[in-house]
Amino acid sequence: MMAPDFPPDPSGHRPVPAHVQEQCVNYAAAQYQIHPLVLHAIAEVEGGQIGMASRNANGTYDLGVMQINTINLPLIERHFPRVGWRELVWSPCVNIAIGAWFLRRKIDEVGGDFWRGVGNYHSATPRHHNRYKRLVHDTYQRLRAERMARAAN
Asked: Which is nearest to 76 in space by CA: 59, 58, 57, 63?
């Protein structure tokens, strides 16, 4: 578990290079049967970066690219014993893969209702859930339109 006084990265946060994020997302998307653009949309909405640990009002932290909350560390460590907070903060591919795994769990927990699972990735509280689900959906649609426009050119 991470101590409440988790030290910030002294060198600042670093964005994931686009080609690295693309490879990591494609691998995780295939592994957990999630459309890659949805993972890109979640990463964009979350706004996480390498080295990022954002403290929340409740004393937990959101970690790395997919901003995985430390409240989930015991669950993650049970399924992935070699993955702790350091890997989630510093390894973007590990973070993206764990984010995809966590999203798949959330989708499966609601009987395969994809967008409900996406909302639950962030929160089961209706107002937070619905706002997040809408943000990810809108971001996904924009990314999809951009990709289609590039392919048409």
From this structure: 63
Domain residue spans of the chain: 27-146
- Of 131, 145, 61, 133, residue with least CA distance to 95: 61
Handedness of CA 54, 87, 72, 5 (dihedral sign): negative
Task: Kindly write down the DSSP assignment for every residue of 62-82, as one continuous string.
Answer: EETTTTEEGGGHHHHHHH-TT
The tens-digit pLDDT sequence of the chain (153 residues) is 444 445 555 556 788 888 889 999 999 999 999 999 999 999 999 999 999 999 999 999 999 999 999 999 999 999 999 999 999 999 999 999 999 999 999 999 999 999 999 999 999 999 999 999 999 999 999 999 999 999 998
**Calpha distance 107→22 (Å, rounded):** 22
